[in-house]
């Protein structure tokens, strides 16, 4: 049995932290996945100064997000690196990451049986 883990002064179990990370990855993927593909939708984003940006690519969408969760920061950085290295595929990377996390979560449930 895993004991509690102290993160930023809060006492959380490893399973709770894993669950939060999976939910965070799903949230990030849900933000960008509707912009995926030839019939993807545009997103209208407003920054702090009120400037509006319309984007249908994951990279600019994720750059404008202000995230605090460590997993979300990693995923936004992953998308940024994907965009810098290959110029495309940021939305696909986030969608694949969400599916990987879903698979991981289902494997964890079956491992406990």
Automatic annotation (TrEMBL):
Family (UniProt): Belongs to the TCP-1 chaperonin family.
Keyword Manganese listed: no
Entry's localization field: Cytoplasm
Name of this protein: T-complex protein 1 subunit alpha
Keywords, alphabetical: ATP-binding, Chaperone, Cytoplasm, Nucleotide-binding
Listed GO MF terms: ATP binding; ATP hydrolysis activity; ATP-dependent protein folding chaperone; unfolded protein binding
Keyword check for Cell cycle: no
GO cellular component: cytoplasm
């Amino acid at each position: 049995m895993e004991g509690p883990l102290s993160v930023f002064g809060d006492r959380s179990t490893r399973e709770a932290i894993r669950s939060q990370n999976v939910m965070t990855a799903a949230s990030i993927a849900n933000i960008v996945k509707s912009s995926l593909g030839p019939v993807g939708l545009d997103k209208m984003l407003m920054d702090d100064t009120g400037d509006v940006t319309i984007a249908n690519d994951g990279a600019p969408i994720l750059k404008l997000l202000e995230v605090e969760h460590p997993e979300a920061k990693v995923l936004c950085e992953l998308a940024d690196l994907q965009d810098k290295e290959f110029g495309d595929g940021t939305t696909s990377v986030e969608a694949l990451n969400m599916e990987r996390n879903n698979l991981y979560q289902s494997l964890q449930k079956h491992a406990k049986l």
